[in-house]
Design goal:
Number of helices: 1
Helix content: under 10%
CATH architecture: Irregular
Strand content: over 45%
Number of domains: 1
CATH topology: Factor Xa Inhibitor
Radius of gyration: 19 Å
Length: 145
C-alpha cells in the first residue's frame, strides 16, 4: 500500500527582518519574496592524525559554519521593506531574521548581515533583486505549532 507524501508547497512562507538586534521587538515581512535558499552551512573538521593513526586520517569536528540565506524578490523600488536592505548593507547592520513556514510548519531564526544586494533589469521580464544574508551565530529551528 502506498502512503501519501508529507511534502508541502512553500507558498505563504514569509521572510521577516527583526526590528531590534538585542531583543527582537517584532518582525516585518519583506515584500514580494519569490525564492529563499540556505546555502553554505557545514561542519568544519581538524585533522588530528598522529603517529598511532595508521594510514587513515582521524578527524575532529570543530566549528559550524552557519552559511548564508539567499533570496530573491520582485524589485519594488518604493517598498520600505526592500529599502531597508540597502540601508543594512550600507551600514553593515546586524539584524535578527526569521523564516516562517506556512500552516504552522515552523521555521528558523538567526542573526545576519546583508552581504550583497543586486538587482536585475531584463527587458521583457519583471525586475528582481537578489540578496545574500551572511548568518552569524546559530540558526535556531522554530518547531511546528
Amino acid at each position: 500500500m502506498a502512503y501519501p507524501s508529507s511534502a508541502f508547497c512553500p507558498r505563504g512562507t514569509q521572510l521577516q527582518r527583526g526590528t531590534n538586534v538585542v531583543t527582537p521587538t517584532g518582525y516585518t515581512t519583506l515584500a514580494e519574496v519569490r525564492k529563499i535558499s540556505r546555502t553554505g552551512a557545514k561542519s568544519n573538521f581538524d585533522n588530528v592524525s598522529n603517529m598511532d593513526s595508521g594510514n587513515t586520517e582521524e578527524m575532529l569536528p570543530t566549528m559550524l559554519t552557519p552559511g548564508q540565506v539567499d533570496f530573491e524578490v520582485n524589485f519594488v523600488p518604493g517598498d520600505v521593506t526592500q529599502q531597508t536592505l540597502v540601508n543594512d548593507y550600507n551600514t553593515q547592520a546586524l539584524n535578527p531574521w526569521q523564516i516562517v513556514l506556512p500552516n504552522g510548519l515552523g521555521g528558523w531564526t538567526f542573526s545576519a548581515y546583508v552581504d550583497s544586494e543586486d538587482f536585475t533589469l531584463d527587458f521583457g521580464k519583471g525586475a528582481t533583486k537578489s540578496v545574500k544574508l551572511q548568518i552569524t551565530g546559530a540558526v535556531t529551528p522554530v518547531l511546528p505549532a
